Amino acid sequence: MIRKDGTEAILKLATSLVTEDGKSIGFQHIARDVTEEKRMQDNLRYYLQEITRAQEEERKRIARELHDDSAQALYALTRQVDNFVRTNTNLPADNVAFLGDLGKQISKVLQDLRRFSQDLRPPMLDDLGLLATLRWLVSESRERCGIEVDLKVVGVERRLPLEVEFTLFRIIQEALRN
């Protein structure tokens, strides 16, 4: 509807049947201006999308830093421990065993860090899409928890808007964790 001042208004109409002695005699229409409510809903939807986008970008940045910096440093550390043991053949056996255990612990931390980075923001979500990422997530859940999980997809396989894919991924990820 266009108001007298030329601005556009969004109306919500409610219609009811008016009866008298059981016979329909007309309709009653009530119109309510919901322009401001609609504007607020649109703003809220926009801000929620922006918050979600910002969170996903931050997760992507953190995951990339974990992978590029921390994971690389841990990998280099395992190589250094291995090289130290290999080049120092005169080390006492208990030191060799200690360094071997240290290398295994570092490797375990590295695996955990890679898994955490993947969980935080799997790069395949951007590259391959939701379905491939969900297949990976289901496979990971089976391996980690030993619980049989089936993924069934109905319909045509296609990419959704990234925000939708992120949201669906987070929902399913949380469901599998619990």
From TrEMBL:
What EC number(s) would the UniProt record show? 2.7.13.3
Q: Which InterPro entries match?
A: PAS, PAS-assoc_C, PAS-like_dom_sf, Sensor_HK_TwoCompSys, Sig_transdc_His_kin_sub3_dim/P
> Is Amino-acid biosynthesis found in the keyword set?
no
**Keywords assigned by UniProt, alphabetized:** ATP-binding, Kinase, Nucleotide-binding, Phosphoprotein, Transferase
| UniProt GO molecular function | ATP binding; phosphorelay sensor kinase activity; protein dimerization activity
| One GO cellular component term noted in the UniProt record for this chain | membrane
Reaction(s) this enzyme catalyzes, per UniProt: ATP + protein L-histidine = ADP + protein N-phospho-L-histidine
Q: Where are the transmembrane segments?
A: none
* Domain PAC: from-to ranges: 1-46
Q: Name one Pfam family in it.
A: HisKA_3
Name of the featured protein:
histidine kinase
Q: Where does this protein come from, organism-wise? A: marine sediment metagenome
